[in-house]
Specification:
There is one protein chain. The protein is built from 13 helices and no strands. It is globular. The N and C termini lie far apart (about 45 Å). Helix content is about 55%, strand content about 0%. The chain is mainly α. The chain has one domain. The structure holds zinc ion (2 copies). The site of one zinc ion has 5 residues, from α11.
């Protein structure tokens, strides 16, 4: 903390890194950055004006209800044990990489579970928007978020002994990555998709075409889809996708995931 705090001064540091200010500034930065990208290379026409209020409400629910509730429930996740001391001797960069790989592997399987008959109800809200842009992927129900958190909690010992900003960096990266995978931008990059989920890759997962319901389920790394048979090459998919769950749902049940 020392160097940044000295550079900014204690008062400015405390102000900027208070959660309300930090995450408000982050939201502003995300809005400017992703909206600019979407204006430069939009994949589809999106009427921001007609959807933004819905998404701001969903975003507010996510920040002030879903995250705290899921975090509270996460305390009851069994199995959090510090890893053997030898793990803490690995270089930080390697531990961070292992954390993301392991957690993302778990996230993939939780997501697959959400697309089964028994868990689909708790994931429907995420798939309900009939449009895609950076804020369109903010919906997650409490049970969904709780389940998604589990692999991250189990992998967390990899980064347990880290600089003070690591938890913050992980929170920022997962937020920005969620914006990225939903943003309304055409991105043709096969080499990037060989490793990472891109917007067009994830948009196919949101398609209302039944053939796409259980494909491209990965969150960060596309390798899981190729390994476990849920991969569709975006080059082979018609770009004219439409989105949504194709049915009217009771909004309260949708938001609660029950
Ligand atoms: Zn899904
Ligand atoms: Zn999504």
């Amino acid at each position: 903390m020392g160097r940044i705090e000295t550079f900014l001064g204690k008062e400015l540091f405390n102000f900027l890194f208070s959660p309300a200010v930090f995450f408000s500034l982050l939201f502003l930065g995300r809005a400017v950055f992703f909206t600019t990208l979407e204006m430069v290379r939009p994949a589809r026409k999106v009427s921001y004006r007609s959807v933004i209020w819905n998404d701001l409400v969903a975003c507010g629910l996510y920040i002030f209800v879903v995250i705290p509730a899921a975090r509270y429930l996460s305390r009851f996740v069994p199995g959090y044990h510090p890893f053997p001391a030898s793990v803490s001797h690995l270089p930080l960069a390697l531990r961070v990489a292992l954390y993301f790989i392991l957690a993302d592997f778990g996230h993939y399987w939780v997501h697959r579970l959400h697309h089964t008959r028994y868990f689909w109800q708790m994931h429907k809200w995420h798939h309900s928007p009939t449009y895609m842009y950076w804020l369109g992927g903010v919906r997650a129900t409490i049970p969904q978020q709780f389940m998604v958190n589990v692999p991250y909690i189990l992998a967390y010992p990899f980064v347990d002994i880290s600089p003070w900003w690591m938890g913050l960096a992980i929170a920022v990266s997962s937020t920005v990555q969620n914006d990225w995978m939903h943003m309304n931008v055409t991105w043709r990059s096969n080499w990037l998709e060989w490793v990472f989920v891109t917007p067009r890759y994830h948009h196919i997962h949101h398609s209302d075409n039944p053939q796409h319901y259980t494909v491209n389920m990965a969150n960060l790394l596309t390798v899981w889809d190729r390994l476990f048979g849920t991969y569709i090459n975006p080059d082979k998919v018609d770009g004219k996708l439409s989105f949504g769950i194709g049915e009217q749902q009771n909004p309260v049940r949708l938001v609660l995931g029950i």
